[in-house]
Structure formats: C-alpha cells, structure tokens
Amino acid sequence: MNRIVTWISVNDRYAFQIINHKLRCKGLDLILPRVTHLGGATSTISSLLFIILLSESMFRLVAIKSLFSLALSHLFVHIIKKIYCRERPYVKLPDIQLGVHPLKDYSFPSGHTTAIFSIAVIFALHSFILAIILLPIAMLVGFSRMYLGLHYPTDCIIGALLGTISSFIVYLTPFF
C-alpha cells in the first residue's frame, strides 16, 4: 500500500509540474484565470439561481437538482478538506507559476472542480447536447486549477469524482 501511495504522490507532482510549467502559453494565461471562476461559489450559485428564476419548467427542475447536487458536493469537500489537510502545491513545491491570488484553505479536493462537475453532470444527465457543452467546460475548470498552481491533479480528479457522485445521488433520488 505504501508503494502505491508513493507512486501516486510522485506522479501527481510530476503531472502537476508538466501542467504548471511546460504547458504555459499566452493564450492559456489569458483564458484560464477567467475560466477557473466558473467553478467558484459566485458563478455556480448565481447561474443556478438565474436559471431557476427565469427558465421554463424542465430547466428549472434541472437547476434545482443541480443546486442540491452542489450543496451535497460542498459538504463532501468541506469534510474531506478538514480530514486530509493537504497543503497547496505553491506551499510545498518550488517555482510554482501562480495565476491567481493564493488561497488559504487546503488543496484536497478541488472545490471548484467538484462544484462545476456537480452541476455539469446533472445537466448532462438530462441532455446530451448540454453534456457535449458542459462536460468539456468542467474539465477545463479542473485543468485551470492545476495550470494556475492551486491544485495537484489528484485534487481535481477526486473533485470531479465527488461532483459526479453527488450528481448521481441527486439524480437517482426518487424525491425529485
């Protein structure tokens, strides 16, 4: 088991270094600091409230389900961050390219990635067209978190998994 943890840790840092250093370009430097906020609390909550207030019945119901999925996923993230207490890459590793202001909370799992997946997957489960649009955006948000020096790849992978799990829990609950 210790070998597996060591292998994951080494490769996690290696993949992070590639994304944070070797993939740098002006286009991504311009786009990703903006895209990353799509997974933030302001963007996710306000977008869902906007859809709930202004849309027709089907999209309104999907947005309400997404709001429940977002809340559930946030609960998962909050508990795991308190238990795991993983320091962010820019605290642990030298020469990190920081694209945004440093954050004070823990790194694992990525809350932005979890949030965007908790919403995107619910919409994707209701519409193939929305899946084609929203899932790549969710992946781009996860990628942006690494590119901007805020998260390791495993933070974002587990965040995507948690967001997906919360979506399926809400989607499969007969209450809705």
TrEMBL record:
GO terms for molecular function: hydrolase activity. Residues 63-171 form the Phosphatidic acid phosphatase type 2/haloperoxidase domain. It is found in: Cell membrane. The chain crosses the membrane at residues 35-54, 61-80, 115-143, 155-173. Gene3D superfamilies: Phosphatidic acid phosphatase type 2/haloperoxidase. GO terms for cellular component: plasma membrane. Keywords: Cell membrane, Hydrolase, Membrane, Transmembrane, Transmembrane helix. It is a multi-pass membrane protein. Its main location: membrane. PANTHER family: DECAPRENYLPHOSPHORYL-5-PHOSPHORIBOSE PHOSPHATASE RV3807C-RELATED, SPHINGOSINE-1-PHOSPHATE PHOSPHOHYDROLASE. This is Undecaprenyl-diphosphatase. It comes from Salinibacillus kushneri. The lineage of its organism: Bacteria, Bacillati, Bacillota, Bacilli, Bacillales.
